[in-house]
Specification:
Blueprint: H1 3-21, H2 30-37, H3 41-48, H4 56-65, H5 72-83, E1 86-88, H6 89-92, H7 98-109, E2 113-118, H8 129-143, H9 149-159, E3 169-175, H10 176-180, H11 186-199, E4 205-210, E5 224-227, E6 231-235, E7 239-243, H12 246-260, E8 264-265, H13 266-280
Length: 283
């Protein structure tokens, strides 16, 4: 867990402790507060010591139990302040993949220019329904999340309408490794590569492929997206990281353009895709 995130969680915990000790009805012990809330005694101290992340419902209940319901807005703002930066998959996927896709659709709809780097998968904006389905099923298995696969697929495919609206540009960089990765069946991947090849030359899509043999100025690390120079969304195994400060956006933009120097575009990108297709369809 990042230091900034943990510090923010501990600061919220300290504020909760202060409210417990200084409420209008006087000092409350941890066990007494837990009894009022119907919680295990340990939950109170985990929240106060920054060892558990509160939910909005937790914060509302706490504020009411210590006799200070008006302080909920402040507590919830603190929570949103650090939750907006690190969004754990465990918490995000508690209700399935569809809600996560809904949030992404809202952010994409707000954007006019998007830069994406993917080193191991085809970017979601360019996926076929079958490829997206395979992806959601793999992650549902990994995280043990709700299998709302068909709803999630429909929502992801709906997002692709953005590509057909004037004034939008999607700059996608993909490492060639993603073209080979059998995260799905060979037939699904073959159809996905056909789809990708068909997007080369589309006026709202700039597709760059970094060949496996290309010289790289920096390592091909985790995937990330930059939306309108206002927001970066990067993925890791434990969470999505949302970054909206100017320095972070500038860093990721520099990374994207540096990786882009190793990419091929247009007919050359199509040639790389065709080469991979031939390995899948031997004559």
């Amino acid at each position: 867990m990042s230091t900034d995130y943990q510090q923010a969680r501990e600061a919220l915990g300290a504020r909760l402790r202060d409210l417990r000790l200084t409420g209008p009805a006087g000092r409350l012990t941890g066990p007494r507060l837990a009894a009022r809330l119907g919680w295990p005694h340990s939950k109170v101290y985990k929240l106060e010591n920054g060892r558990q992340t509160a939910t909005s419902d937790d914060l509302r209940a706490w504020a009411e139990a210590v006799g200070q319901p008006d302080v909920f807005a402040e507590l919830d703002a603190r929570l949103k302040g650090f939750e907006s930066h690190i969004r754990s998959w465990r918490r995000q996927l508690a209700a399935g993949h569809r809600p996560v896709q809904d949030v992404w659709n809202l952010e994409v709809d707000r954007s006019r220019t998007i830069y994406a780097w993917e080193e191991s998968v085809i970017p979601g904006m360019l996926q076929t329904a079958d490829y997206a389905r395979a992806m959601f099923l793999r992650y549902a298995d990994l995280y043990g999340s709700v299998r709302d696969t068909e709803e999630a697929v429909r929502t992801r495919i709906l997002r692709q309408q953005w590509l057909h609206q004037g004034g939008h540009t999607f700059h996608a960089l993909v490492w060639e490794a993603a073209l080979h990765a059998l995260i799905c069946s060979p037939s699904v991947l073959a159809s996905q590569l056909d789809r990708l090849a068909g997007l080369v030359g589309m006026d709202t899509v700039e597709l760059g492929v970094v060949p496996l043999g290309a010289s790289l100025k920096i390592p091909a690390a985790n995937g990330f997206w930059i939306l309108d120079d206002r927001l970066v969304i990067a993925e890791d195994w434990h969470a999505e990281v949302w970054l909206d400060d100017a320095d972070s956006v500038a860093t990721y933009s520099k990374v994207w353009h540096t990786l882009g120097e190793s990419a091929v575009y247009g007919a050359d990108a199509q040639n790389v895709i065709s080469r991979v297709q031939r390995t899948m369809r031997p004559r």
